[in-house]
Amino acid sequence: SGMNGTAIENFVCVIFNVSFMNCTWHVGRTATEDTQYFLYWRPSEQEDSTECQNYIKDNCGRHTGCRFQNVTMENKVAYFLVNGSRSGQNIQSYEKRILLYQIEKLTPPLNVTVNCNEASHRCSISWQPPRTSHVKRNSCFKYEIVIENK
Predict the structure, then answer these.
(1) What region holds the Type I cytokine receptor cytokine-binding domain (predicted)?
(2) SS3 letters across the chain
(3) What's the whole-model pTM score?
(4) How far is Cα 22 from Cα 66, in angstroms, rounded to an integer?
(5) Which strands sit side by side in the sheet containing 63-68, from one edge to the other?
(6) Strand pairing report for 63-68 and 122-128
(7) Model pLDDT for residues 83-142, shown as the tens digit of each residue
(8) Rounded Cα distance, 141 and 143, in Å
(9) Which domains can be identified in the chain, with CATH numbers?
(10) Residues 104, 108, 111, 114, CA torsion sign
C-alpha cells in the first residue's frame, strides 16, 4: 500500500573492514520533505528484525542510509525492509534479500614485504591474505601485482 513513487530507490549495502556495513538509498520520486524512512533488517531467517540504530540523514533530516557495526556474514542471507510515513500516511515499502558475502569489499592484503637482491636483479614479494569473516581457504583469493619502474 502507499502512494506510487514513495518507496526508496537504489538500495545498496556494502560490508567493509570485515564487520562494518553501510546501506544507503535515494528517497522516492514523489517523496516530500516530511517523508521519513525506517530500515529494519534480519541478519538471518532465525533472527528477529531490528531497526537501524545509526541512520544517515539528508539535508531535510530524512533517513537515507544506515551504518551497522559487528556484522557477521558466514554465508547468510539477510533480509531488509524499508518503510515509512509522511503526514501520518503510509508510503510504499521496499524489501530486499542480500547474500552478505557478495557485498563485502575486501581489505588489501596484509603485511606486504618486498626483498630485492641487487646482485641477481631479483625481488621477492610476499603478503598475507586480506581479513575477512567468511573466506576460510586462502586458495580462494587471486592476486594481481603491478610493478612500476620509477
Answers:
(1) 11-98
(2) CCECCCCCEEEEEEEECCCEEEEEEECCCCCCCCCEEEEEEECCCCCCCEECCCEEECCCCCEEEEEECCCCCCCCEEEEEEEEEECCEEECCEEEEEEHHHHEECCCCEEEEEEEECCCCEEEEEEECCCCCCCCCHHHCCCCCCCCCC
(3) 0.80
(4) 6
(5) 55-57, 63-68, 20-26, 9-16, 104-105
(6) unpaired
(7) 998 887 888 999 999 998 889 888 888 899 999 888 888 889 999 888 877 676 777 788
(8) 7
(9) 9-103 (2.60.40.10)
(10) positive
Residues in contact with 14: Cβ distance below 8 Å, sequence separation at least 6, in sequence order: 21, 22, 103, 104, 105
CA angle 47, 51, 52 (to 5 degrees): 115
74 confidence band (pLDDT: 50, 70, 90): low
